[in-house]
């Protein structure tokens, strides 16, 4: 079984208990719909890659961390798409959960995914704490979203909380799963999250539907901050290049450092929209 | 410090990290608003009472379980009050969270409370699993709420999931915190939850604003199942009496059994609205 298939099987198994025959059928269906088929699964793959680079044989803990993080990511997308937030009708190339199942089931599916993430990670207290920090208040995804409700946005804090924190959880939980010190891995994730956000902003402005299959031009439509409007197109591209270099440099020493650097470089390159890459025809 | 004050202090401490100065101010305020001042705090008090009846010296674990359960209860109230569900404007005698802070912050505060519950319980994997079961899918609060989205409601499964499951988590997590087998404690919580639901239905129909300070007549207004409409007033009162007897009988042997039975009886009596109690003038 290749690594991608292994991850999908792990996600299916980790979600299986929620779809027990006694679950209200629409909720069970909404949970499956929110998680499958996935986007690029960048976060769980990063988690597994870091764990493998740090040590071998920690597969169970690493998969638990990867599944928990992907469920939390999916939950954040479901709630973020709600009419009271972005009101996005499409996600991952299909109608968003609230469009397909209604608003009530979208709220509940998001809630149940958060709960299931912690059920899956419960046997690993350190991993549970790392992912909780990445999604709750004051520094996680909820806080990131909540900056959108403030009269003045702290742009750095906003993007760190909304995007960086969960990437940092990937690298830190991956290290923790392998039994090594998680703290030095924080910077890699935060920088990668920052790069990812810039790439996402570039795609949004350039009108290129990216990894998530969501509509473009949303930031302007929703009055959200965007790095391209702040730095201009060339400035944003330059920032992205700089960040990708810093990501690689920040990887701590570990047995699989070279292979991990290569893998992260590949993922990072894939972030830059082909249509925007330097030297593209 | 008396037991009630100790619990409030523990709740404040467990929520404190979310209100760090870097948290978006409105989210921090909404989180405090959702948890303080509380209702009767029946669930965390039950958790602590069971733990103390089973063993002494497990205070840290028991308080963690109690705080996690209360946060999850508060989260469920915040999301349940949203316009897409009950659309309740009042809760615990004040405007509900979405009325005071807007719908977006109500969604986020609920999410962040779920996350914080698991952050608080992270050091106790068994407790984390017990509370996850009580709030997620297929048998927890999310599933209970989701039955309201189905064309046909399984009334027994609905009330077990929506109310019984979290009461069962109280008794089971209390036992687990004390280091004893949690399974025999499930029945006490489920029966107590059932009794609580019947008492709530009686208050709703009789127009008596109960523990939660919420408007009455909501079940009929929202087309939700209610035991009084099913069994009639006398039938519902009789069922309540029977259930309370079964709760006491179901308490497993433990060092503090007699004191716990007395405490649960007091709580149970308080559930029956005075205006409805037999023999009331």
Describe the 3D structure.
The structure is a homodimer of 281-residue chains. Chain A has a two-stranded antiparallel sheet with strand order 1-2. Chain A has one domain: Farnesyl Diphosphate Synthase (Orthogonal Bundle), CATH 1.10.600. Helices cover 68% and strands 1% of the residues of chain A. Chain A is globular, with a radius of gyration of 18 Å. With 281 residues, chain A is mostly helical. In chain A, strand 1 and strand 2 (94-95) form a beta hairpin. Chain A starts with a helix and ends in a 10-residue tail after the last helix. Chain A contains 13 helices and two strands, in the order ααααββααααααααα. Chain A has helices spanning 3-16, 25-35, 42-54, 59-80, 97-101, 103-121, 125-135, 141-147, 155-177, 186-206, 218-222, 227-250, 257-271, and strands at 90-91, 94-95. At the A-B interface, helix 2, helix 6, helix 7 and helix 8 of A face helix 2, helix 6, helix 7 and helix 8 of B.
């Amino acid at each position: 079984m290749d690594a991608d298939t292994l991850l999908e099987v792990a996600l299916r198994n980790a979600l299986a208990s929620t779809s027990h025959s006694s679950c209200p059928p629409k909720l069970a269906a909404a949970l499956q719909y929110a998680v499958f088929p996935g986007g690029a699964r960048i976060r769980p793959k990063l988690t597994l890659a870091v764990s493998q680079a740090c040590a071998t044989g920690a597969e169970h803990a690493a998969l638990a961390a990867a599944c928990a993080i992907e469920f939390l990511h999916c939950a954040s997308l479901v709630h973020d798409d709600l009419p009271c937030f972005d009101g996005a009708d499409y996600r991952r190339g299909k109608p968003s959960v609230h469009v397909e199942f209604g608003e009530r089931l979208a709220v509940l599916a998001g809630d149940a995914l958060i709960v299931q993430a912690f059920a899956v990670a419960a046997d690993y207290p350190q991993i549970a704490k790392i992912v909780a920090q990445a999604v709750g208040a004051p520094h996680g995804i909820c806080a990131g979203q909540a900056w959108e409700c403030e009269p003045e946005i702290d742009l750095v804090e906003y993007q760190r909380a909304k995007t960086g924190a969960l990437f940092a959880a990937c690298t830190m939980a991956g290290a923790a799963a392998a039994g090594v010190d998680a703290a030095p891995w924080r910077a890699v994730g935060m920088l990668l999250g920052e790069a990812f956000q810039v790439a996402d902003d570039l795609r949004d402005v350039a009108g290129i539907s990216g990894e998530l299959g969501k509509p473009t031009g949303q930031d302007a439509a929703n009055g959200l901050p965007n790095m391209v409007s702040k730095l201009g197109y060339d400035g944003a591209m330059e920032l992205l290049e700089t960040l990708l270099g810093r990501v690689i440099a920040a990887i701590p020493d570990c047995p699989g450092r070279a292979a991990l650097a290569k893998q992260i470089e590949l993922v990072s390159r894939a972030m830059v929209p082909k249509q925007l890459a330097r030297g593209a025809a």
